[in-house]
Design a protein that fits this description.
about 230 residues; mainly alpha; Tetracycline Repressor, domain 2; 9 helices; disordered N terminus
Length: about 230
């Protein structure tokens, strides 16, 4: 039996000043993420970020070389927070069905920040400007999500809880449709995200051949052992 894989998500050194991010820099990242989630990148100026944060524009340049670097740091911060939430799911479950269910429920609880993240990634992907660092951040996000889901599905198959589906295809299906739900919520703000995600969860259980009302709790090893 292999040792559990312990993942540590580390931010890239976007700050001009080394070391841990001071509270002022964290505040700037929070404000920038909020503004980028509401407007296109080109429409968000350094002055607008500074005004919203209640600071002088020069303070932003003290911590970040440019608006592009600030954007990268804000996006990475949002992605890392989401990945850390995924890691906590791995740590607290020893049953694949419960882990997957909690993964869906997490998207309900964190719907607003996830919608912001999806909006920013959509704007970036359609901007016509590609950046290797940003591409790698987005790739890491979907890679970790796929690993969490596919490993959980594989685990459930081994315990005879789920149908013998293709774990990677099933993971991609759930991830893609959840992105669709968040995108629809951006288009239709009145959409009941919780209802849509719960419907998706029901359909996903049908695909896996799993009855969530079943009392069977087969569980042998944590999902870490299935991750590679």
């Amino acid at each position: 039996m292999t040792e559990p894989i312990k993942k540590k998500y580390r931010a890239s050194p976007f700050l001009r000043r080394g070391g841990a991010k001071p509270k002022r820099a964290e505040r700037l990242l929070t404000v920038a993420l909020e503004l980028f989630s509401k407007s296109d990148f080109s429409a968000v100026s350094i002055k607008k970020i500074a005004d919203e944060a209640g600071v002088n524009s020069s303070l932003i340049y003290y911590y970040f070389d440019s608006k592009e670097i600030l954007f990268q740091a804000a996006l990475e911060r949002a992605v890392l927070q989401t990945l850390q939430n995924y890691e906590m799911l791995r740590e607290r479950h020893n049953n694949p069905a419960e882990l997957i269910s909690d993964w869906f429920d997490t998207h309900i609880v964190l719907a607003e920040p996830i919608k912001k993240l999806v909006k920013i990634m959509l704007d970036y992907s359609t901007s016509g400007t590609q950046h290797e660092v940003i591409d790698s951040i987005i790739y890491q996000f979907y890679k970790e999500e796929s690993q969490l889901l596919s490993a959980s599905i594989e685990w459930g198959i081994k315990l005879d809880l789920f149908n013998a589906v293709d774990p990677l295809r099933a993971a991609r299906l759930a991830s893609t449709f959840l992105d669709g739900a968040m995108t629809r919520a951006l288009i239709m703000p009145t959409l009941d995200v919780a209802e849509v995600i719960n419907d998706l969860k029901d359909v996903f259980w049908e695909h896996l051949g799993y009855d969530p009302t079943s009392k069977s709790k087969g569980c042998q090893q944590p999902v870490h052992h299935l991750l590679s």
